[in-house]
Each structure stands twice: as structure tokens, then as C-alpha cells.
Amino acid sequence: MNIQATEKNGVTIIPLEGRLDGSNATVAEQAFLQLLAEGKQQFIFDLSGLQYISSAGLRVILVAAKKLRASKGRMVCASLTEQVYDVFEMSGFTTILEMAATREEALEKISASA
Fold this sequence. Notes:
5 helices
């Protein structure tokens, strides 16, 4: 998994593509932790290109949410595909994480609270 984070209006956007499972969850987690260590505090996880997420992938999202909550940061999960949304819903993530239908909506949510 090649993660190319970008920044827009002070918000770091992490696009996740393909599969987020045991074989590459560590790569995604390390990329997030590196950005957090650089002082980034506002994130959008753009999941529009993600076709599959396993429990290992869900753990990455949960670790990010917990670390950001502890540091008073913020994250929004955006553009979930139907399959990924179903997994989020079954695991209860839709009730504990902030969600947005699009990347633009996620940016608006973060900007509105800044």
C-alpha cells in the first residue's frame, strides 16, 4: 500500500486504496503515526478507493481515532464504499467515528469546528 497524504486548509488527507488488511495495516498505521509525530492534528481518511477492510484495518482506524482523541485532534472518515461502510456499520464504527459522504463534506465538518 502506497500512501500519499496531502494537505488542504491545514487538514491532512490520507487516501486508502485497495485492501487494508493484515498484510499492509502496519504500513498504514506507521504512515499515520509519522504524520501525527510531525504535529498534524486534523485528518480525513478518504476511503473512496478502499475495496476491502479487515479487522486489522479497522484496528488502524481505531488507533488513529484514539490517539487523536487523546491529543485533542480530529478525524473524519470520508467516501466509504458500500462494502466498507457495511463493515464499519457491523463493527459499530459508524456510531463512534465521524463520517462524511464526500471528502468535501469532511473538510466542511472539520473547518466548521476550527
